[in-house]
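Module 6 notes. Inverse folding takes a fixed backbone as the condition and produces residue identities as the prediction. Think of it as a translation problem where the source language is geometry and the target language is the twenty amino acids. Below is one complete input and output pair. Work through it position by position during the lab.
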C-alpha cells in the first residue's frame, strides 16, 4: 500500500527501494495497454482492424504461454528469477531470448488495449443510438447517474442551439450517466453506454449518483474524440425512478454535513476544506483555484493517494490493537477504502489511488511483499481494461505519472541531497541530520512528481510553473493535518454538527496556511512561464526535462545548469520589465490593442487580472497579457459572443490558469458558443451565463452586472443588446464597461438610475448609437474607445468623440494610441498612459 508520506509529499514510502534496481517487468504491459487504448480511443478502428487485432492478441498469448512452458534457466540466474514479462537475459530450448518474449508480451497488451477501446468506441459510434443522435431525435430515455451533476459546466462540445436545450439565461447543469433504455419514434431498445444529460440546474442539481431517471429530451452527437455515446438535452424536468442506492444516499448526506460544518470557516479556506478531504469543489473560490493552478497546487483538490492512505492506515492502526489477523484487518481496510471511494466519487485520481490501495491490501492479506511500482502497473492495466476511457483522462495520467516519478526518481534524488548535506555538515547533530533528511525527502518527492507531470501539463496548456516545487514543499506539512481533521469533522458531524464545526475551525488553520502559500507563490513575478500547448508543448517539455535530469547527474554540468536557470530567472524578473517600462506604475485597467474588438484587463493583484473580452486574435490578447505580466485569470468575462470580443479565447484559455468564464446569457452566434464550450471543457473551466444582479470579487477587483435584465429578442442585434454591462471597481477606481450595448440595452440600464464612475469604456467601439444618459451623465474623467485603425464601420463616430470631449473627458483610443492604461497617481487622480505598437509610451491626449 502506498504510504501517506509519499502521497502527501512528506517523504518516501518504505516499499520503494533506495539504491537498488527497480522491478520494471510490469511497466511494459502497463505502458503497452495504455498506449493501445489511447490510440483506439482517439481514432476508433474499423471492424476488420478489430478482428485483426483480436487474432494478433490470441497469437501473442499463445506464443507467450508456449515460451513460458518451454523456458530453461540461462546465464541470468536460477529458475524463477524472471517472469515472462521481464525475461531479459534468459533463453528457452528453442533459443528464444528474453527481449523477443518481452516484445511479444508488449504487443499482446497493446492489442488488448486496442481491442477493448476499439470495441467500446464502435459500440458508441454505431447502432441506433448514434443514428438518432445524428438526427437529433426527441426520445424518452431511462438513465442512471454515474456522477454528481455539475452546475453551469460546458455542454460536451455540441454546437448550436437546438430544440430542448436549456435556454433563457438560467444556469444549466450536466450529469454523466449510463443509458439503460431508449424509446423513440417507432423503436425501443436497450443500450448500456455512457451519455451526458444536460438540463436546468434547478431540475438536475439535487440528484445523487446511482439515481435512475426518466428523461424526455433531444439527443445530439458528442464532440469528436469524446468518450460518451450521445448528449441528451432534457426538455422537461427528469422524473426519478425510485431512490438512489443506500450507499450513495449516505455518502451524499456525509458530504452535505461536511459542507455545513466547513461553512463556519471563512472563505477561501472554508471552500478548500471539503475539496481537500473528499474532492468537493462546489464552494472552492475561483480566485483560489487560479492561485492553485499558477502555484502548481491543483492536485491538492483532487482526492488521491494521501486521502486513501490516511483512511486505510487509520483502520489498520486501530485494528492493530485487536486480535484480528492480517487478512481480517486487510479486509476491513478494503471495506473502508471502498466506502471512501464512494464518498469522494470515482474520479480518475480516486480510481487510481483506490485500485492501487486494493492491490497493496491484497498483498498484505496474502503476506506478499509490497512493491509500489508493480502495484501501480497492475492498477493501470486493470483500470484501463475495465474502462478504456481512462486512457484519455488527463487526471488519470497526472496521477499515474506523479506516482511513477516519485517511485523512480524520488529515492535516488533524496539520497543525493542527503549526501550533499552530509558532505557540507559532517559534524552536524542528529537532530539537524534528521530534519535535513525530511526536507530532502520533501524536495525530492515534489521535484520528481513535478518533472514527471510536466509534459502532460504542457500538453494541457497554461504554461509551466517555476514555483511549483518550493510551493509544494512549503504547503505539504499542512496537507496531512487538514485531511485528518477534515475526516474527523465528517465523523463528528454524523452525531453532532456544532461539535463538528469546532473541529472544522481547527481544520481551517492548516487550510489557511495552504491558501497563504498558494497566494504568495502565485504572486511571485515569473512564477509561470509561457509554453506551447498540445503535442509540440509536450514533446519540448519532455526534452527539457530529460536534458535537465541528464545534466544534473554530473557535477560540472549541474553547476552550469544551475547558473543558467538562475540567470534566466533574474533576466525574466528584473531586466525585462525595466527594458520595456510596461505596464506603468499604478495601472488599474488596460485596454489592449487587439484591433477591431475589446480586450480589457483589470488588475486583480500581482500577476493576476480579471479579463473582460479577448478580442478577435488569440496572439494579440496573449501578447498583451504577457506584456502586463499576467500569469493567472481568476475570472474571464465575455460580454457577448461576437468574434471581435470572444474570438481570441484560445490565447487565454489553455495557456493561462483561468478560474471561471462568465458569459452573456444569449448563446449566439451558435458557432462561437460552441467554440467557447470546447475551449472551456478542454481546460476544465466552468462556464456561467449571468444576467443583471450577478456580482463577484477577485483580488482587488469587484464587479457587478447591471445589464441585461433579460435575454433580448427581436432587436436589431440581439447579441449586442445581450452584452454584459459591468460596473467595476479596481483598487479605488470605478469604471463602467459596456460591451457592445446598443440603444435598447443602454436605455434599459439608464432606467435603473444614474451611474457615476471614474472611467467609461465607450459602448460598441464608439459607434454613433449612444444615449446621452449612458454617454455623458457618468461624470467620468476618462473615456476609453477600443477600436481598429481604418476599420470599415466608421468607428468611432465623430459625434460620439465630440460629445465625450464636450463632457470634459480625456478620450483614449487604441487606434491612435495603441494599448491604453488607466492609472491612479499618488494623489488619487486618474490618468491615462498609452503604449504605441512600437513600444514607446506617452500620456494620451484629451
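Target side of the pair, the amino acids:
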Amino acid at each position: 500500500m502506498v504510504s501517506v508520506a509519499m502521497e502527501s509529499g512528506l517523504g518516501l514510502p518504505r516499499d520503494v527501494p533506495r539504491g537498488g534496481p527497480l522491478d520494471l517487468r510490469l511497466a511494459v504491459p502497463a505502458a503497452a495497454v495504455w498506449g493501445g487504448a489511447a490510440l483506439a480511443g482517439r481514432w476508433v478502428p474499423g471492424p476488420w482492424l478489430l478482428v485483426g487485432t483480436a487474432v494478433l492478441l490470441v497469437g501473442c498469448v499463445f506464443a507467450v504461454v508456449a515460451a513460458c512452458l518451454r523456458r530453461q534457466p540461462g546465464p541470468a540466474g536460477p529458475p524463477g528469477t524472471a517472469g515472462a514479462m521481464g525475461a531479459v537475459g534468459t533463453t528457452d530450448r528453442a533459443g528464444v531470448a528474453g527481449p523477443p518474449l518481452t516484445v511479444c508480451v508488449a504487443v499482446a497488451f497493446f492489442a488488448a488495449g486496442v481491442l477493448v477501446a476499439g470495441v467500446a468506441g464502435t459500440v458508441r459510434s454505431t447502432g441506433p443510438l448514434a443514428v438518432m443522435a445524428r438526427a437529433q431525435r426527441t426520445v424518452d430515455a431511462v438513465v442512471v447517474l454515474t456522477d454528481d451533476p455539475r452546475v453551469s459546466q460546458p455542454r460536451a462540445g455540441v454546437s448550436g442551439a437546438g430544440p430542448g436545450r436549456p435556454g433563457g439565461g438560467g444556469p444549466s447543469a450536466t450529469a454523466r450517466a449510463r443509458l439503460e433504455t431508449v424509446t423513440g419514434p417507432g423503436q425501443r431498445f436497450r443500450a448500456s453506454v455512457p451519455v451526458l444529460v444536460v438540463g436546468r440546474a434547478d431540475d438536475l442539481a439535487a440528484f445523487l449518483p446511482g439515481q435512475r431517471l426518466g428523461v424526455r429530451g433531444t439527443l445530439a452527437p458528442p464532440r469528436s474524440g469524446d468518450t460518451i455515446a450521445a448528449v441528451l438535452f432534457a426538455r422537461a424536468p427528469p422524473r426519478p425512478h425510485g431512490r438512489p442506492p443506500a450507499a450513495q444516499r449516505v455518502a451524499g448526506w456525509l458530504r452535505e454535513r461536511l459542507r455545513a460544518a466547513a461553512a463556519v470557516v471563512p472563505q477561501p479556506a472554508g471552500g478548500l476544506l471539503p475539496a481537500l478531504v473528499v474532492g468537493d469543489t462546489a464552494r472552492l473560490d475561483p480566485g483560489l483555484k487560479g492561485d492553485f493552478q499558477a502555484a502548481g497546487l491543483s492536485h491538492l483538490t483532487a482526492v488521491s493517494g494521501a486521502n486513501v492512505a490516511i483512511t486505510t492506515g487509520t483502520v489498520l492502526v486501530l485494528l492493530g490493537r485487536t486480535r484480528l489477523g492480517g487478512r481480517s484487518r486487510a479486509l476491513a481496510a478494503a471495506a473502508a477504502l471502498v466506502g471512501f471511494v464512494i464518498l469522494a466519487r470515482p474520479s480518475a485520481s480516486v480510481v487510481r489511488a483506490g485500485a492501487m490501495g486494493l492491490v497493496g491490501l491484497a498483498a498484505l492479506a496474502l503476506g506478499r511483499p509490497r512493491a509500489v511500482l508493480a502495484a501501480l502497473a497492475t492498477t493501470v492495466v486493470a483500470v484501463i481494461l475495465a474502462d478504456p476511457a481512462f486512457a484519455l483522462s488527463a487526471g488519470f495520467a497526472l496521477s499515474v505519472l506523479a506516482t511513477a516519478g516519485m517511485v523512480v526518481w524520488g529515492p535516488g534524488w533524496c539520497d543525493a541531497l542527503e549526501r550533499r548535506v552530509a558532505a557540507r555538515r559532517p559534524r552536524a547533530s542528529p537532530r539537524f541530520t534528521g530534519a535535513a533528511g525530511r526536507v530532502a525527502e520533501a524536495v525530492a518527492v515534489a521535484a520528481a512528481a513535478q518533472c514527471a507531470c510536466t509534459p502532460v501539463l504542457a500538453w494541457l496548456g497554461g504554461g509551466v510553473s517555476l514555483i511549483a516545487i518550493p510551493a509544494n514543499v512549503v504547503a505539504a506539512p499542512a496537507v496531512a493535518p487538514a485531511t485528518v481533521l477534515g475526516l474527523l469533522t465528517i465523523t463528528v458531524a454524523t452525531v453532532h454538527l456544532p461539535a463538528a464545526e469546532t473541529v472544522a475551525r481547527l481544520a481551517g488553520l492548516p487550510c489557511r496556511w495552504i491558501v497563504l502559500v498558494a497566494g504568495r507563490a502565485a504572486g511571485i513575478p515569473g512564477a509561470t512561464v509561457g509554453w506551447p500547448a498540445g503535442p509540440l508543448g509536450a514533446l519540448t517539455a519532455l526534452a527539457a526535462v530529460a536534458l535537465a535530469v541528464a545534466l544534473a547527474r554530473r557535477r560540472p554540468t549541474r553547476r552550469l545548469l544551475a547558473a543558467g536557470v538562475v540567470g534566466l530567472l533574474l533576466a525574466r524578473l528584473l531586466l525585462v520589465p525595466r527594458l520595456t517600462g510596461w505596464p506603468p506604475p499604478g495601472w488599474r485597467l488596460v485596454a489592449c490593442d487587439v484591433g477591431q474588438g475589446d480586450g480589457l484587463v483589470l488588475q486583480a493583484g500581482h500577476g493576476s487580472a480579471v479579463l473582460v473580452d479577448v478580442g478577435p486574435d488569440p496572439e494579440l490578447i496573449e501578447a498583451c497579457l504577457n506584456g502586463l505580466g499576467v500569469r493567472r485569470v481568476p475570472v474571464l468575462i465575455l460580454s457577448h459572443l461576437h468574434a471581435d470580443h470572444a474570438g481570441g479565447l484560445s490565447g487565454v484559455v489553455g495557456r493561462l490558469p483561468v478560474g471561471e468564464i462568465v458569459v452573456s446569457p444569449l448563446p449566439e452566434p451558435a458557432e462561437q458558443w460552441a467554440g467557447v464550450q470546447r475551449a472551456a471543457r478542454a481546460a476544465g473551466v466552468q462556464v456561467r451565463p449571468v444576467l443583471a444582479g450577478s456580482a463577484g470579487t477577485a483580488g482587488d477587483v469587484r464587479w457587478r452586472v447591471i445589464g441585461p435584465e433579460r435575454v433580448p429578442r427581436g432587436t436589431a442585434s440581439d447579441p449586442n443588446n445581450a452584452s454584459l454591462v459591468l460596473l467595476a471597481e479596481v483598487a479605488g477606481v470605478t469604471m463602467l464597461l459596456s460591451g457592445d450595448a446598443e440603444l435598447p440595452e443602454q436605455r434599459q440600464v439608464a432606467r435603473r438610475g444614474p451611474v457615476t464612475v471614474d472611467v467609461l469604456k465607450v459602448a460598441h467601439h464608439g459607434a454613433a448609437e449612444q444615449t446621452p444618459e449612458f454617454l455623458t451623465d457618468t461624470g467620468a474623467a476618462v473615456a476609453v474607445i477600443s477600436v481598429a485603425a481604418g476599420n470599415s464601420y466608421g468607428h468611432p463616430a465623430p459625434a460620439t468623440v465630440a460629445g465625450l470631449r464636450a463632457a470634459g473627458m480625456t478620450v483614449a483610443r487604441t487606434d491612435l494610441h495603441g494599448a491604453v492604461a488607466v492609472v491612479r497617481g499618488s494623489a488619487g487622480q486618474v490618468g491615462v498612459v498609452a503604449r504605441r505598437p512600437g513600444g514607446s509610451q506617452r500620456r494620451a491626449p484629451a
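Reference fact for the lab report: The CA atoms of residues 107 and 494 lie 51 Å apart.
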